[in-house]
Give the backbone structure.
Amino acid sequence: MLRGYPKRYCSMESEPGNKKSATIFPRARALYVHVPFCRRKCSYCDFYSLAACPGQEGPYLEALAADLARHDGGLARPCRSVFVGGGTPTVLPARALGGLLALLRPYVGPATEFTVEANPGTITAALAAALVEGGVNRVSLGVQSFAADELAVLGRIHSRAQARRAFQLLRHAGVANLSIDLMYGTPGQTLESWRGSLTEATALGADHLSCYCLTLEPATPLGRDCRAGRIHEMDEALQRDCYDAAIDHAAAAGLKQYELSNFARPHRQCVHNLTYWHNEPYVGVGPGAAGYLDGRRWTNRANLEAWARALCAGHAPPARGERLTGRALMAETVMLALRLTRGLDRRAFARRFGSDVAEVFPRSIARHQAVGSLVVTPGRVRLAREYYFTSNAVLSDLVAEGAGEGQGKTTGGDTKQ
Ligand SMILES: C[S@@+](CC[C@H](N)C(=O)[O-])C[C@H]1O[C@@H](n2cnc3c(N)ncnc32)[C@H](O)[C@@H]1O
Ligand code: SF4
């Protein structure tokens, strides 16, 4: 199965940057802000979020300001991208949302991609206008499906009509860059209904499309239903058909595939996510947010109270972290770059690490080139199209070869920084 929806707080982890970042290391040009509230939890989702209740926003924003201030020396002003995700940022009351956007203003310049994730069930004309007024120029709308029965299985708070209306309200308010998230693999979904969702998304005029294969996360209601035999995972042949349909449909609609799960009109690729796939530094603030700076990764503990308590007392929030170096860092860089249809830029890799990628991973690159799963040219290494759906097999070989010599990874425990 193809995996790769944006689990932003669960990968490798380390402590946030310290004062060194301002001087020795380049500042991060990407900022991620985690908003840990949703109106109601969807049946499949294990992102960190709590059911929103009145009064939480004030303390959250106060702690967020402190989290941002801690990273000020490590962040470019303006950033290349600011991404407000969650959770559901648009569940915040208008005043709090305005306060959040104002807090981020110093990191937003005229060329910054400023994205907010939105659930269609939370979009009103006033909220759309507030986003634009706050400088937001890109919205990622979590539609998931346009089929009523699938929306019910997924526990979504909105209907097909609300999703369509939300898109139109955002467009009308002046959001020039609109992305839609769709999911395939939902129990009960058919190839026909999936094609229907793709058709509606492109007919609305989405500038960018993310098509994720549903992961049945063990700690979610859908994961439990699957273990208990009450629902069944979509069979892999149908998942593959859905994936192929997404690629064909997007291409026919003028949305070019640029990553395993992502498609865009010209100049509408997600600048923020490209930072992740290029394995470049970014700062993450908020409970559960991840960051990567000065060669270290960290993930703030996914606990609103613990995060806010520490920051309001003038301390760093609790986090887990690790430092990736040597072959482990190179393997991760290759693995992320191979998610892009352009693949890895060999010269950029050699500049960064001092060796050609084919010398660093000779066994896995030669093996997969021979099989046909990797296309290797003097300038690039990329996955062959027929292997996108089964990319995990190729990527895990590279990681195994990277880890082969056991170098370069220091895992931190639960830390107080
Ligand atoms: C934080 S959510 C999106 C924004 C907003 N909270 C919403 O749901 O409308 C980011 C995206 O991750 C995807 N996602 C979440 N859980 C997933 C899962 N278990 N499997 C696959 N994709 C998932 C969904 O497409 C979702 O839109
Ligand atoms: S609205 Fe989005 S973040 Fe919230 S539970 Fe649903 S998928 Fe997860």
Summary: Residues 326-403 form a domain with the Arc Repressor Mutant, subunit A fold (CATH 1.10.10.920).
